[in-house]
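Reopening: structure tokens for the fe (iii) ion complex, inputs below.
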Amino acid sequence: MDYTCLTTTEIINWLRKNLNEERYIHSLAVADTAKDFAKRFGIDEEKAYIAGLLHDCAKCFSTDKLKDYIDQGVEITPDELPNYKTYHAPVSAYIAKTVFKVTDEEILSSIRWHTVGHTNMSLFEKIIFLADKAEPKTRPAEYLEYILKDFDREDGLNKALLACYKATIKSLADRNLTICTPTIDVYNELLNSVEG
Ligand code: DGI
Ligand code: FE
Ligand code: FE
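Re-run output (same inputs, fresh job):
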């Protein structure tokens, strides 16, 4: 199934040109991790791989450039507006749609929401969200150990997501940064969905 107008090699070449080295390594690792998780949860592996590759495609755009896309109509929620670090997610989804000609709505929404998430995420969105946080190439080993410690449990996916949200909220609070309301909502939802 062709999810984009480019071959995987062409996408990887585009990423190499448009991302810094760390982000390039991260993107390839997220794609591999998303594919592994997709296999584990019985969903389309190629589709997860493409979403992983593209999820941060606008991450290295300057803040001014990201703001320009938003000024020109890329939609962002009022909750996201105060933190420019969240802007790359909606802009990456826009680039996936317009440059890579992705039409698959699940791929586009998984990219769109990979940073703040939203309540009631689909399995596909959860897998891309978690793959972004759990890839082993650039995320610290102790962080992986923390978020994946209960991954093999029956409710392991939600457990792992909850640990990601916990770590993000702690880190934002420690840095005196605003925490988007949806981030808190997702945290509460996950907390209520897991046992023990
Ligand atoms: O792009 P990545 O580094 O791979 O990861 P990401 O897309 O999850 O982006 C992480 C950045 O987004 C990090 O600097 C913290 C910020 N962020 C994530 N959720 C929130 C947030 N910032 C605020 N203020 N509120 C959030 O809820
Ligand atoms: Fe990101
Ligand atoms: Fe990422």
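Residues 56, 59, 88-89, 114-115 surround fe (iii) ion (ligand 2) (CB under 6 Å). The first helix runs from residue 8 to 18. Marking as resolved unless the reporter disagrees.
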